[in-house]
Amino acid sequence: MTEKQNTLYVGSLAKGLKILRSFDETATELSLGELVQRTGLEKSAVQRLTNTLHLEGMLDKDPHTRRFRPSHAWLEMAYAYFWSDPLVRLAMPKLIELSHQLDATTNLAEISGDHVLYVGRVPGRRGQFSSTLVGRRLPALSSAAGRAILLTMPEDERAPLIDSWSLVQMSPRTCMDRALIAEDIALSAARGYAMTRDQSILNQTGISAPIKGPNGRAVAAIQCSVATRNCSEDRLQNEILPHLIEAAEGIAPQLRGTDQG
Fold it and tell me: How far apart are CA 255 and CA 261, in angstroms?
């Protein structure tokens, strides 16, 4: 159903959400003009919307520069989200244990459109600030977690997704060949886990195992990131994979008592 056909669609609310979605890690503070450019909305509309969002506590406004930034209200909404998602609550003890076992950053990832979204993160001892932040989105086709989720789908269902989902050149070694990606996911399906090297960050290897619902399809994935130089085949097979798969399989049975899966 298109927006015009949906009589319950509120266009002004959608425009306000478009304002909020303009902010990301590359644009943490935006002027009125920058918001006009990013949203494609008329300046008068952006002016009214940002003023309303500011008065409602959704945007902070610097009194000197008059630039806008996200407010604490965003954290309050994120807090509500985490309590609403039972998978996060079930997975966090496993993520913490896995991070300690591997001394690596561990993530819980869910599909969001054609991306994966990190909804739970536990950094390793050498983790950077960025590895502590939930909410990071990555193209599913270029991430180990996205491929781990796709590998649980029948080939005739995942093939159209591989053909149509977005690809972004995040590193010089990001694979942009969809045929090679399809081949890798098929191999991953045979072995039960996914692995990517240097796809989003150079010298970083991502390894991921699916968290399957009762129907055998993944509802999410556990993923860990390690330096490529520290990911020998021996360590992968004897240290990383056993713990990773055990963590994913330990969460799956608990999902049966929730609305997941």
Answer: 7
